[in-house]
Write a structure and sequence with these properties.
With 241 residues, this protein is mainly beta. 13% of the residues lie in helices and 44% in strands. The protein has 2 domains: 119 residues, OB fold (Dihydrolipoamide Acetyltransferase, E2P) (Beta Barrel), CATH 2.40.50; 91 residues, Immunoglobulin-like. The protein is built from 3 helices and 14 strands. The chain starts with 13 loop residues before the first helix and ends with a strand.
């Protein structure tokens, strides 16, 4: 694990600092892409809230106290969108590629996930300072006013990281109905469907189309659930037959 903050109790040489800065810049790029839409992450999170950080506790490596394992925060909830009836919660962020360190006294929009026995946040989604989260808050607020449908969207690319491919047939099936669309000139596709459980299948006469599991907030195209007001995203890779 790469520690991307100054080490406690240790004076760091300039060369070490430069190396760590380079490593941290590379590590930050490790977040899966694209970043999920707020109305997608909302349904994955256990708790979605606005509030203020009131305290911080540094989690040190028990075998080497110069290394930070993560941070534990006490968070005062001021507005709740999902989960937790409590006024205060404790949230943790691990010092890894997805870390999201907070500042005491600052207000945040947080998407919180239950990981075994603790509640965790990360910097790869839509959690942000409240001053920077206006768009995400509006997207969350719009969920309650959404029509009786959710969205399935995604993109089909030629190879990993290639150009989008037009004309790939995309079929979404539930227990009763089938919905069909085609990818556009940029490879993107989108369809509105009623809430429920679905299976998504791409097909093409010219290409072999495979699911890319590098998509953020991975959903299994063989079985996934669409919620009212949600957006589910899938990425596919096409290879010539």
């Amino acid at each position: 694990m790469i520690s991307c903050v100054p080490r406690l109790f240790v004076k760091t040489a300039l060369l070490t600092a430069i190396i760590e800065l380079i490593l941290c810049s590379s590590a930050k790029a490790a977040c899966p892409h694209p970043t999920p839409a707020p109305n997608s992450e909302f349904f994955k999170a256990s708790v979605v809230v606005i509030g203020t950080v009131i305290s911080e506790q540094v989690d040190l490596n028990p075998y080497d106290t110069s290394l930070i394992e993560g941070w534990l925060y006490r968070f005062h909830i001021e507005r709740k969108f999902r989960g937790s009836p409590q006024e205060f919660i404790s949230v943790y962020t691990e010092n890894d590629n997805g870390r999201f360190p907070l500042k005491v006294g600052q207000r945040y929009l947080l998407f919180v996930f239950r990981r075994e026995d603790r509640m965790e946040i990360n910097g790869c989604g839509n959690s942000a300072l409240l001053t920077e989260a206006g768009g995400a808050v509006r997207a969350i607020e719009a969920i309650k006013n959404a029509g009786p449908y959710g969205e399935i969207e995604g993109r089909v690319q030629l190879g990993r990281g290639g150009d989008g491919i037009r004309g790939i047939r995309i079929v979404a099936r539930n227990a009763k109905r089938r919905f069909t669309t085609f990818s556009g000139t940029d490879g993107w596709f989108q369809m509105r469907v009623p809430p429920g459980k679905y299976k998504l299948s791409p097909s093409s006469r010219k290409f072999s189309v495979e699911f890319s599991d590098t998509t953020f907030w991975y959903d299994d195209p063989e079985s996934f659930e669409v919620n009212r007001g949600s957006a589910i995203h899938f990425e596919y890779i096409a290879l010539a037959k």
